[in-house]
Write a structure and sequence with these properties.
Layout (H helix, E strand, L loop, with lengths): L1 H26 L17 E6 L4 E6 L5 E2 L4 H11 L7 E3 L2 H6 L12 E3 H10 L3 H9 L5 H14 L18 E2 L1 H12 L2 H8 L2 E6 L2 E6 L12 E9 L3 E10 L2 E10 L4 H24 L7
Antiparallel strand pairs: 1-2, 1-11, 3-6, 4-5, 7-8, 9-10, 10-11
Helix pairs in contact: 2-6, 2-7, 4-5, 4-8
């Protein structure tokens, strides 16, 4: 009798073994976690675009127009360059440039004289507000004509949410959506002057008898681990810390737009987080498309 019961218990154990194996397998820790569907960024709004196939990799509040601060200067540079004026012509900083950029710091005092090329260089690289204001003031037809050209250029580029009222970005009335700013970055990236000036690490100018050195507002351009093709930073209280750029990630051109970051270093940290996220998603996609072949 006992032998029959022992046989029954053994049969029951054999029946339960596959179930126990399945339970154990499901409880086992996984080697790799699946990639996040969207990067964990601190910026209030962002937009990440893969240029190769125009695919939007990730976005948040991408259609909402918001103040864009000195990202404005990319549009200022586009229309100034479109006008075809001499880069060597010397322009003076005036009291009007000081009034037009009230509340912002500048080392370009009234009476300072620089070439149009140097002013454009400082506006793009160091976000020099008086330089941008002077460039637009000296635009054919003056400031009003320059601002009209900026808004017309936005329409041509398909930036339906964009609106500009002045050339520096100090006004919170300069607005655009993250999606439209990606279009601006793509247009700016087609201009070699904007690419060179916006990604230069530093630039020295002669102002009267003094040599002044200016540095880039974006530390990533000097980072050997980054390949930045075009970039612009921005800040006013209404816009928060902003950053747009075209960069290379895993051999592909990617546009990153980060708006309204809350801390001085957050936009840079967000750019790094965005890059790691893109790299991880590409790695995961490559693993799925190229499964391991069992050896035989």
């Amino acid at each position: 009798m006992r032998s029959f019961r022992m046989i029954d218990l053994m049969a029951l154990a054999l029946c339960l073994l596959p179930v126990l194996v399945l339970v154990d397998a499901s409880a086992a820790p996984r080697d790799t976690a699946p990639p996040q569907t969207r990067p964990d960024l601190r910026s209030n709004a962002f937009y990440i675009l893969d240029e190769a196939d125009s695919s939007v990799l990730a976005a948040r509040h991408e259609h909402v127009p918001v103040p864009i601060a000195s990202i404005t200067k990319l549009m200022t540079a586009l229309v100034v360059l479109d006008a075809g004026q001499s880069a060597d012509e010397v322009l003076g900083i005036t009291a009007d440039d000081v009034r037009g950029t009230a509340g912002s710091a500048s080392r370009l005092a009234p009476g300072a004289r620089l070439s149009r090329g140097d002013l454009l260089h400082l506006a793009l690289m160091s976000s020099e507000n008086r330089a941008a204001h002077a460039l637009c003031r000296e635009y054919p037809g003056g400031m009003a004509a320059c601002v009209r050209a900026m808004n017309h250029k936005a329409q041509v580029l398909g930036m339906g949410t964009a609106r500009f009222v002045e050339p520096t970005g100090l006004s919170s009335s300069n607005v655009a959506s993250p999606e439209d700013l990606a279009k601006l970055v793509l247009a700016a990236a087609e201009n070699p002057t904007i690419r060179d000036y916006s990604t230069d690490t530093d630039h020295t100018v002669q102002v009267n008898r003094q040599r002044l050195q200016f540095r880039n507002t974006n530390r990533l351009v000097a980072n050997p681990g980054w390949q930045v093709s075009v970039q612009k930073t921005g800040y006013i209280s209404e816009a928060g810390r902003c950053l747009v750029m075209q960069t290379v990630i895993d051999g592909r051109q990617v546009v990153i737009v980060l708006l309204n970051s809350w801390g001085k270093l957050t936009r840079i940290a967000d750019a790094q987080r965005a890059r790691r996220w893109v790299e991880s998603t590409r790695s995961a996609a490559a693993s799925v498309s190229s499964p391991a072949v069992p050896s035989g």
